[in-house]
Amino acid sequence: MTSETGFDEMLAPDGTVRPAYAGYHEWLSQQDERWVHSKNFEAETFFRKTGITFNVYGEDAAEERLIPFDMVPRIITGGEWRRLSRGIEQRVRALNAFMHDLYHRQEIIRSGRLPERLFRNNDAWLPQMVGFTPPGGVYTHIVGIDLVRTGPDEFMVLEDNARTPSGVSYMLENRETMMAMFPELFSQVAVRPVSDYPARLAASLAACAPQGAGRKPSIAVLTPGIYNSAYFEHAFLADQMGAELVEGSDLRVVDGKVQMRTTAGFQPVDVLYRRVDDDFLDPLTFNPDSVLGVPGIMDVYRAGNITIANAPGTGVADDKAIYSFMPEIVEFYTGEKPLLPNVETWRCADPDALKYVLDNLAELVVKEVHGSGGYGMLIGPTSSKKEIAAFRHKLEAKPENYIAQPTLSLSTCPILTRKGLAPRHVDLRPFVLCSPSGVDITPGGLTRVALKKGSLVVNSSQGGGTKDSWVLDD
User: Fold this and answer.
1) CATH 3.90.1150.10 is right for the domain spanning 344-407
2) C-alpha dihedral (303, 290, 121, 355), degrees to nearest 10
């Protein structure tokens, strides 16, 4: 393997294999190299036949792409996962408490821990949610916490995804592909399963149903339609849960309830797992031009006759300026120091922070506060002087739109290249389910990998790929 900066999760500095990879490495060393490469091609063919693709916006030549899959798994020991899980659960509980407080007494604002301007001028904060508590008191039903690793015991949170986190279908398909191609490998290495996620998701959503929903609540997945970048996932999850996949045109408010059109007439929906952004959810409350949502659904919601997952208004937690206050948020609501630290963050809305960022643009990563998918960001060390100068003008014009972070030395995992194994940078998105009965964390998650040598951008929209994520059952 060629060297690449960052903590190597498979190999120690002396070239020995770390304990997490011992079983896999032993198996791999016994395989014929040509056979392994043929399996890699087989995996790509499987993904194409299954239709595991995503849409790329703004590119006429390549509207739909295959997400590259690398067959070398990313492996985490059971002990590492237990420590991570404690930190993830603490953070998700704090996020849910924060959402409730923000739409009720706003104690964290009164205490001076969080500036009021962060949500007063935030489009993701919805005044329509003030004073309302969702069924079961759950705001963040499904959460994706993006983690990066910088050392043996050093995991940090890079982002919180509390609105409509995506990628879980790729986690499931990656595992199914690996088990189909290498069944004997899973008999040699004990890996915790992830295939029960759809059942756990359905049970978690059902537990959040409004009162009066009955013993078997009706669940539907609301999609914007086939042209959405994550449509494959919407259809996949609905199918796996045994739920209905619906568009806004399939739903209407009848007798004070949201009901879906069926061959037997309109039937009530108790829980709506929505993959439509807040602004398009209800044209009577938000964007009047929306044809993706359901007119009147917010009135039904506030009357307590439907659960919307995730709750409208949770996008505040996705804000990267809010992210920078997460250590204070965790401590405020749990009374504990964060078990998972944030990446050091400069809020460009603060004059002193802005001056530091402008003076050090060539060394920093700068992100839009509401950005996602790797768009609208600057990676100073890999940018040209012209790109840095252009970004400087953006920062000076609207500093409140940006935060900056140091360029981290992300950990690496091996990928299979034509010349053999080679390290590439990775991150990890574990998926978390929340219900009145507690927090449920799927063992593993989605590992995204920067397939280009030296690249730190793992997003599929920017040329990244995915891996199967293993948590060892030890």
Assistant:
1) no
2) 140
